[in-house]
Amino acid sequence: MYMKDLWNQRYKEQDYVYGKEPNAFFKEQIEKLEKGEILFPGDGDGRNSIYAAKLGWKTYAIDYSEEAINKNKRNAENENVIVNHQILDMSKNEFGEDFYDCIVSIFVHLDEDEKKIYHSNIYKALKPGGVLILQAYDHDQLKYNSGGPKDISLLYSLEEIVTDFQDMDFIVLAKEVIRLKEGKLHDGEASVINFVGKK
Predict the structure, then answer these.
(1) CATH code that applies to domain 3-198
(2) Could you tell me the residue ranges of all domains in the chain?
(3) For the chain, how big is the Rg over CA atoms in Å?
(4) Which residues partner with 192 through β-bridges?
(5) What percent of the chain has pLDDT over 90?
(6) DSSP states of 55-106 as a string?
(7) To which H or E segment does residue 115 belong?
């Protein structure tokens, strides 16, 4: 089964795949920022973008799974918020230039080549002064059973962040073991990298 088919099946079968509540690290960081244009690549069924829209951000969500975007749209309508949706493969397409005040990347895991392209596109799409909020599984996540890829090339390292975002000001950069409770698929102790950078 191709990865896209797997994600389509996952979002078709379940309610909120990773729970209805926004990611805790994103929620903590977003409340420190002035509202503006915000992008959520790999947003899935919308728990994070919907939260931002409720706060008053002009919100954009992209995903390459049609089922994810369809569910995201329905969930946004049910919550009476406006989220702009687009089906887009983030590893192959740019998503604008100097446009977003904030980009939020929560557990977006791509192979090494695709990840470099994705990170470059994030940097390009942020306005000068724009902020990236990123949380992803670290290499040490292989020791845990709380979700994420089992292929180390799809996981993150601190060195990767430092290299790929070297032109940003680092506000937060930390590797931590946290307790995840995000639906059935993200549940338990997890090794993550938390990053906030400013262009």
Answers:
(1) 3.40.50.150
(2) 3-198
(3) 15
(4) 137, 176
(5) 61
(6) HT-EEEEEES-HHHHHHHHHHHHHTT--EEEEE--TTT----SS-EEEEEEE
(7) helix 112-125
